[in-house]
Write a structure and sequence with these properties.
With 340 residues, the protein is α/β, with parallel strands linked by helices. It has 11 helices and 13 strands. The chain folds into 2 domains: 171 residues, 3-Layer(aba) Sandwich (Rossmann fold), CATH 3.40.50; 153 residues, Dihydrodipicolinate Reductase, domain 2 (2-Layer Sandwich), CATH 3.30.360.
Length: 340
């Protein structure tokens, strides 16, 4: 990898996260060249219906000036799939940002495996492959001597995964977290305004915090997937989402929240990893607890042996937030390959 000063990359999926990554890459390319001594050459962009491939490097300025003309570009090839062409590309890093089936991890899982099988390092913003097949992906990466980074899968730009390297002299014994901004917003609004779940959900959808189909969020499945990834990375476990006891927030009523308030508690949707167990469910939290964060924020509390509780708080979603995590992973891979 890293032939000379040039790092060749491909991007699979040019949705919100993928597009934000390209915009961030364009904005930061001079900074990357000066501070990290390498240039990124974007060789290919794959979409669901074809690919833009230019071995001399795709011009980011022209591409981002009018993204709607992607398929009118002279290098556009219709009706090709990433999994069929990854092996033919001369690239160092494959960046996967496609939408993913939460039950199968596809097509991201196939893209990741295809890249690794061709000794290409991988960066992914997709959760499903890692909460379904974490160990298989890591074993394949090790076998092929490849690096796999996925910071954007949990809490977006909050360094929930990469903090591991800053705690290698410590021991993490427990994780407690709020990992879904939609649920936290809904519960915050129900608590402060006394409104019903359905009203709070509708409000979250109108504000763009909740999906049109919010099932994965409000059922607890999204938070459970993120908890699996965190526990495997930070605690050294080897779990899948099938190992998580999951309960959502749909049964929480204003009355329950009011009863909690009388005793100076609030109800939060917590994701907990401790004593080899994974649990995602609503729990009572003291009103003055640091876990009582508001709005769409995410929070990760790591209980450590030598430093007590360490807490990370920040935006857990967003195009540029995820894009910055991907760029962090990219720089991290290049530095690792160079022995830094």
């Amino acid at each position: 990898m890293c032939k000379g000063m040039e790092v060749k990359i491909c991007l699979i999926g040019m949705g919100n996260v993928g597009t934000c990554f390209l915009q961030l890459l364009k904005e930061k390319q001079d900074n990357i060249r000066v501070n990290f001594n390498f240039n990124c050459k974007l060789v290919a962009i794959f979409e669901y219906d074809g690919a833009l491939i230019d071995n001399d490097g795709i011009d980011l300025d022209n591409l981002l000036d009018d993204i709607t003309n992607l398929r009118k570009n002279q290098y556009w090839i219709s009706n090709v799939k990433a999994q069929d062409l990854i092996s033919t590309l001369d690239i160092d890093i494959c960046i996967e940002t496609t939408p993913t089936n939460p039950n199968t991890g596809e097509p991201a899982l196939t893209h990741i495996k295809e890249a690794l099988n061709n000794k290409i390092d991988v960066i992914s913003s997709n959760k499903a492959p890692f909460y379904l097949h974490y160990k298989k992906i890591q074993d394949l990466a090790e076998k092929m001597n490849c690096l796999v980074k996925f910071e954007a899968t949990v809490a977006s730009c909050v360094p929930a995964i990469s903090i591991k390297k800053s705690l290698i002299g410590n021991t993490i014994s427990r994780i407690r977290a709020i990992l879904n901004g939609t649920n936290n917003y809904i519960l915050s609004r129900m608590t402060t305004e006394g409104i019903s779940f359905s009203v709070a959900l509708k409000e979250a959808q109108e504000l763009g915090y909740a999906e049109t189909d919010p099932t994965l969020d409000i059922s607890g499945y999204d938070a459970a997937g993120k908890l699996v990834i965190l526990s495997n990375e930070l605690l050294g476990w080897s779990k899948s989402i099938e190992d998580v006891k999951i309960k959502g927030i749909t049964k929480i009523t204003p009355h329950a929240l009011e009863l909690a308030k009388i005793d100076d508690y609030v109800i939060k949707h917590l994701a907990i990893a401790e004593e080899n167990n994974l649990i995602v469910e609503p729990r009572l939290v003291k009103r003055d607890s640091l876990l009582n964060i508001q709005g769409t924020l995410n929070l990760i509390e790591l209980q450590t042996k030598y430093a007590g509780s360490i807490i990370l708080i920040g935006k857990g979603a967003g195009g540029f937030e995820a894009a910055s995590a991907i760029l962090n992973d990219l720089i991290s891979i290049v530095k690792k390959r160079r022995g830094f």
